Amino acid sequence: MIPRLHERANRPHDLLEAALGRPVSPDEGLTECTVVAHWPGLDDFTQDDEDTIWTSVEWAEHLVDPRLNHPFPATPRDGRALFHIEVRLALHERELSLQEWAEVAHRLARAAGIEVPGKEQGARWIAVQAQPGRLDLIANLIHIDGTWHAPPGNVARRLADESRRIEQDLNLTPSRTTPASPPAARTAPTASAQLAAVLTQLADEHHGPLAAVRGLIEHTAHRTAHQPGAAGTAHSLLLLARRVYAVQEDLHRAAAGLAQPPVAVEPPAAQRSAHRSP
Q1: Are 253 and 273 in contact (CB under 8 A)?
Q2: CA-CA distance, 46 to 259, in Å (whole number)?
Q3: Whole-structure pTM over 0.70, yes or no?
């Protein structure tokens, strides 16, 4: 399970389109099978007799409301208050149930400091599971009262650590991580270790070039989907982005193989004795 922390945005519509893999629509209702989790205060905005199936446009408007009600919060000055976390499962991972996806969403929201236990009027957030093996958590960092919520400075590490715990709890395949730093002893790295480090840097999900390329392809795909008659091209671009992700996984496997120390194989005892002088 690999979490990816995106740059903050100022419109939830673009983030929802990225999560859904298609444009938002005023006619498409998103059920609990798509919006698998949300902030606890949402129940105060719905009546018992009200239709709880909102369209993707209504969800976007719900997320952006705090910004509209408080257009001049103390921070951020650039207006980018929409927080976006994307998490992907390994390519050959089993399918998760709705309850498991909901648990993943709430645990990541708490790890990022977006959801504070016992605080129902905090940040508005929803978790969207619309694409295979992928979950998107979108939050507005401006609270209902206009205060600004600043995520912890080590939010990326907190998300990565929580993802490792989720993998263990849900019996998921552990994702590849950057190898630990070598010991303090002054030992020269082997050629295999150096090559493994290069491959790991290439495939790094947060700062690697392939992750940046995949992000640009996905962004272009979502922008292309808005163009008339370009749905096929947008779909092809999304498939290409998934192929880049598969290359990242292959590089992680190759790096892990190179990082393994060579195993010395002793010849069988019978062969050793055969070479001894009688």
Answers
A1: no
A2: 54
A3: no
